[in-house]
Amino acid sequence: MIAALRDVVVEYAGRGRALGPFSLAVQPGEIVAVVGPSGCGKSTALRLLAGLEQPGAGEVERQVGRGGTALVFQSPTLMPWAEAAANVALPLELAGRPVGERRERVAHALRRVGLSDAARAFPAELSGGMAMRVSLARALVTEPRLLLLDEPFAALDGLTRRRLVEDVHRLWAQTRPAIVFVTHDVDEAVYLASRVVVMTAGPGRAAREVAIEAPLPRPPGFRAGAAFRNAVEEISEALDKAAGAPV
Amino acid sequence: MRRLADIAAPLALLLALCGLWEAACRGLDVAPYFLPPPSAVLAAVVDRAPVLLLSAWNTLKMALLGLFFASAVAMVIALVASLHHLLEKAVRPIAVAVQVTPVVALAPLVSIWAGLDHPERAVIGLSAVVAFFPILSGALAGLKATDRDLERLFRLYAASPLQTLFRLRLPSAAPHIVEGHRVGAGLAVIGAVVAELAAGSGATQGLAWRILEASNRLRTAEMLAGVVVLMALGLVVHGAMGLVESRVLRRWRGAR
Fold first, then answer.
1. Which of B146, B147, B153, B160 to mutate to test the interface with A (most CBs of A within 10 A)?
2. CB contact under 8 A, B152 and A69
3. Using the beta-carbon criterion (under 8 Å), do A93 and B167 form an inter-chain contact?
4. Which residues contact B135 (CB under 8 A, 6 or more apart)?
5. What is the pLDDT of residue B254?
6. What domains can be seen in chain A, in order of their start residue?
7. A71 forms bridges with which residues in the sheet?
8. In a domain? residue B179
């Protein structure tokens, strides 16, 4: 286990309970997708795993330091005044790594996401997909053991999303970090993860867990196969029930 | 082509208005002490150019010094106030009170505090008072406008408070801070002129004094010449700050 939430509850003053009780254990090197209706507390769960928030009740266990954790948000969240390379270098710079090491690791991270040529570009000069790749490179530059992705492709077009999902698999295969991926998109969850956790409507609890039996990265034609379709069907039904909608 | 039209349109309007003004003065035989024609104003500008330019420089110098002090004080206060919302709540009403108090009302007081032998200090002080609020307001708004996810990222990577301030909060606030300075610079010039008029002393040798001096002698064309140079000064300051804004913020807009 690399990180775990045990019966955590999060409440915000004036807004009531946002999450829980909710439990999730993340194993080293696995990819877990978390799906659930809007406002069920998926992002809150990620922030708990990142150590950015503390639960009102329950326990958070982390076997990985903050330096070993990376977070990618729904928007690329780049500093608009800094070039792509400077954005990617941020975690190393904040950790006080020497300039030479920074330069080398930033170049490597940008190469991994296929953006070596865009190192000097400012965020406003990048397309949505490119900016998200820079965001991924920034997350990967510290070689994290736990990578938390908070609906990172939600704002992108379908084709770019598909490409980036493939990128996540390719990048995961290189260093095998544990990935927790929050999404609204059931197809994306099934394609990306080895395990999908379905959450109830807010305050979210775990409603169902579905294991996806296929190797990672996915073999060609996986989306057209029965295993994919059955998993999507099963999770969609669980989601409808969890959200209280008629099945 | 469009750029040319952008310049030509206001120029054409200005020329047309001046033409009307000239024709009205000549046609209606208006007394020059009441309203001199634009040709007389232009002649006064040319005739008095060395004095007017020197005076404009004096006014500009005092306004820029006022802007500098306003900037220094407002930025320090904004940084301190941004540390806690109660500090900001404490500062705001006082800042607003300073903003809504007419500078003319403060002028006699500031003249005494600055020393009656140093009217230029009073002008600088009053110009700083006028420029203070937009800079403070811009900086406060900017320091609060930091992207929450970027803040989370800085916390995730255990950034120190100083790293967060210099690498995140100040750069995030830059567009607001620059805008505050742009507005503040324009107000600093206005503040300097009002303060000069209120001080009523020739020791400042600024443009307002030239206007006052001409008024005392009923030289209306020279008064208007002073106003014309003042307008030009205002436009130059506005243009210069616009240039600074576009240069400083070009990265924020993705331009090089």
1. B153
2. no
3. yes
4. B70, B71, B74, B75, B78, B177, B180, B181, B184
5. 64
6. 3-64+145-243 (3.40.50.300), 78-144 (no CATH)
7. A148
8. yes
- On the question of pLDDT at A246 being above 50, the answer is no
Number of H helices, E strands in chain A: 7, 9
Check if A71 contacts B (Cβ < 8 Å): yes
Q: What is the ipTM of this complex?
A: 0.88
**Calpha distance B72→B63 (Å, rounded):** 14
Domain range for B116 is: 56-248
- The CATH number assigned to the domain holding B222 equals 1.10.3720.10
Tens digits of residue pLDDT in A134-180: 999 999 899 899 999 998 888 778 888 888 888 888 888 888 999 99
Report if residue B30 sits inside a domain: no
Angle at B115 between CA B72 and CA B182, to 5 degrees: 30
Contact call for B156 and A73, based on CB within 8 A: no
Total of domains in chain B: 1
Q: What is the pLDDT of residues B128-142, one digit of tens each?
A: 999 999 999 999 999
Question: Among B158, B171, B255, whose Cβ lies nearest the Cβ of A66?
Answer: B158
Decide if B15 is inside a domain. Answer: no
Asked whether residue B5 is assigned to any structural domain, the reply reads no
3-state secondary structure (DSSP) of residue A157? coil
Chain A residue closest to B248 (CA)?
A: A81
